[in-house]
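Quick one, T. Sequence first:
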Amino acid sequence: MLEVNDLSLHYGQSQILYDVTLDAPTGQITAVMGNNGVGKTSLLKAVAGRHPFSGGKVHASGVSVGSGSAVRSARAGIAYVPQGREIFPMMTVLENLETGFALLPRDARTIDEDIFELFPVLSDMRTRRGGDLSGGQQQQLAIARALITRPGVLLLDEPTEGIQPNVIQQIGACLRLLRDRGDMAIVLVEQNADFAYDIGDRFVMIEGGRVRRRAEKSRYSRDQMLEDLAL
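Structure tokens:
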């Protein structure tokens, strides 16, 4: 489980997040929703150690993550798929995947075959440079690279952005499979409301850097979500 308690974050003198509290249980997809500029990406960066937070606490499986250390977050089992993918364009698909080995002990530095079962296109393109892949293929590579570290928490920032519909379906199917394994908490930041609602189990609505609503899918209709996003 991922637990975020009273998290605050600043960029210089500007406060972006105000006492954000949420939890993301293992075996569920928690969708963090809200309009542009409300702090969703900043929240993921804080949890992933990409940006220091100015107050609050983050725990992954009971381990305190601390602030501003991507290494510490990764060692606590948090993997981050950033907006824009950030793959290495001059490295091959295989080399991109192998960058995840840095976190693992030497005897565990292998690529499980289930990575290629989840993303068959990557198996066919192991020797192709990352920069030569399509946007959808790069997104699949970014997710696969995160899974190399065998995380307990997977953070995804806008995984459907700029992706063709058939690849969006493949990514959705992959996330459902990962959820159903029951050994990973998935936190999804997504502007594609239909995609988020279809695969989400729980929803956290953020407005102006604050949590406005928390809801289970069974008690939160698609129309309610769209109404919240329209405010």
